[in-house]
Design a protein that fits this description.
The complex is a heterodimer of chains A (262) and B (372). Chain A is mainly alpha-helical and 262 residues long. Chain A contains eleven helices and no strands. The longest helix of chain A is centred in the N-terminal third of the chain and has 38 residues, at 3-40. Chain A is globular and about 65 Å long. By secondary structure, chain B is of the alpha/beta class. In chain B, helix 7 links the parallel strand 7 (177-181) and strand 8. The chains are: A mainly alpha (262), B alpha/beta (372).
Chain lengths: 262, 372
Amino acid sequence: MLELARYDGRRRFKGSVYLSIGIALLAALVVWIFPSFRDAMDMDELLAAYPEPVLQVMGIRTMATLEGFLAVELYVFGWIILLGLYLAYSTAGVIADDVDRGRMDVLLSLPISRARVVGEKFAAMAVPIILVNVLTPIVVYVGAPLIDESISGADLLAVHLFSIPYLFACAAIGLLASVVFDRASIAQRVALGVTFALFLVESLLEGTDYEALGAIAPMRYFDPNEILIESTYDIGDAAVLVGMVLVLLLASQFWFRRRDIS
Amino acid sequence: MLTVSVSTTCQAGRVIRTYICSLCELFTMAAIELAGLTKDYGEVLANDDVTFSVERGEIFGYLGPNGAGKTTTIRALLGLISPTDGTARVLGHDITDESDLLEGKRDIGYLPDAPSFDEAATGRDVLELHARIKGDERSEELLELFDPPLDREVREYSHGNVRKLGLVLTFMHDPELVILDEPTSGLDPLIQQRFAEFLRAESKRGVTVFFSSHVLGEVRRLCDRVGIIREGQLVTVEPVESLLDRSGKVVRLRTAEPVPFERFDPSSLAGVHDLETSLDREDGAADDSKAAFTECTFTFTGDVNALVERLDGIGLLDLSVEEAPLEDIFMRFYGTEDETGAERPADSVGRDEVGDEQAHGTARSSGGGDDA
């Protein structure tokens, strides 16, 4: 069991370490620039100058505290948007690219079911998802005292833990695209488009009559502001994300079992 | 006590009987059985009601021009595509039932027509992954025979090396049945030779080989029986000898002095087809190449000794005897003129013969190990 997941996971390890380092550098940059923002201007005044939709899209509550600043600049921008899109894009290649390049023929000639191929390849995405959450909290936690700020270790840990089901949900969107489309480039474009559209639907429709539409977006169930500023952790939201992952995974397996590999 | 022991003995006897019966079934069952396999892509009928079977231990060549539907059949046999109608069994497992087919895949080796592996992985990485999933009985021995550069990344492999790695992976778990899609394309002649010897040895060990090809020469070197497919339809299944008898050679010759036309006229030498001649003479203004020639080309399906006799005494400048191209054979025996519906009946006759030919081929293949 899990031979394929281990193999794929190992193949993803190096790239994931680089990704983790890159994101940690972004975190260090955000922590480092916070004092100059804090001292140079009244952040709340600055926020008041932004049009409302921008605040809404970025989910900005306050930028006057390190927690608020990190929530927007690092977690909404870095995790929800950047990593969410990256994982959807990257996972969209896992099946489609093998089919596209003819590698799936060899793989499926092995005594391994199609559902297992999909499941194990998806499981291997745990490598980037977890690695990217290892270095950054350390950088932030160590960096805060260096700029004479402090941050709750528990909140920091929570924001990273709760981001894991969110990132898996984005990856699962990519997975579904990956089994539906034969060509990796199309699957990846669709996954990017759908994930970004869901982000916009969730953030732009908030407070309108169509707010309910945002319920299908994983972004609704992961709110770094809530965790970092209010220290509220919503287990229910995480459970919804896990449910989404399972539904998308099962749908992908179902689809992949029924289709022709051509 | 006595009753108990008698009933136990009876029960044991029944169990043993059932076991023996299922063993018998296992050995008599064909390695591959296709029953009306059809794959309709809408615009193309890639496989049209294909029915034949491959017996255990035989080398079966699946022959047809490019685009005839060979790969479609193979992909259906491996469960990569599902038939729109009909079904097939490999090693007794239903190809339309994924979990049943998975059982079979432990004993099947498959080499696709264009094998492809993870570019960033080394050959060894790929080999180890396969070993973990399906087991490794004999990769060392295979690596001595086909030596792909295992420690290099696959992206640096030549086509030949990718294929060599594919061959090792196909046979490493010691499968009962191997399905090879155009296995020798891209291999250099030396490795092709080695591969042919290897395949014959495998067949002697009882391995069933099913391979597709569009090269007649390859098929004639290796196969016990041949199935021919064209435009998705199975044209015939026959022992390779009967195909060879009918396939013929292309003979080209050039002479110093004009040769009388009668020498190779079909009416005087049996087995000459498509005779084309030309006369090259300096004073040839009034010449007729129907009377004599200095150059000629024909397809010969007769006795080679008779041909050699006719050649005796001719001052030859050049002579070549080659395998007839597959396309010509199709043209001659099965008709390839699509637009003429009149050519079609030949197909149906061919297909009606399949049953008899199979029976014949089966009988042959049971004792056919020696001539392999």
